[in-house]
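Notes from the 1:1 (GR / supervisor)

We went over the backlog. Supervisor wanted to see one worked example end to end before approving the batch request, so GR pasted a single chain during the call. The sequence is below; no edits were made to it. Supervisor asked that the structure be written out right there so they could see what the output format looks like.
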Amino acid sequence: MLRPESYLPLTGREVVALGVAPGPAVGRALAHLAGLRQSGAVRSADEERTALRAYLGANPKAT
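Structure output shown during the call:
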């Protein structure tokens, strides 16, 4: 059961749709987002999308 403050994190398909190249880069991007969730740096899917865009800007080979 999800806690009321929880949300559904981005999926691999969503990460690809946002510009990550299919393959190992998807796993790296999802691992990055998981770390941000664990640290409390992101608290919504919208914040994950913003964080992913920043990640892609800093890691252009992921696209």
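Supervisor's comment: The two ends are 34 Å apart (CA to CA).
Batch request approved.
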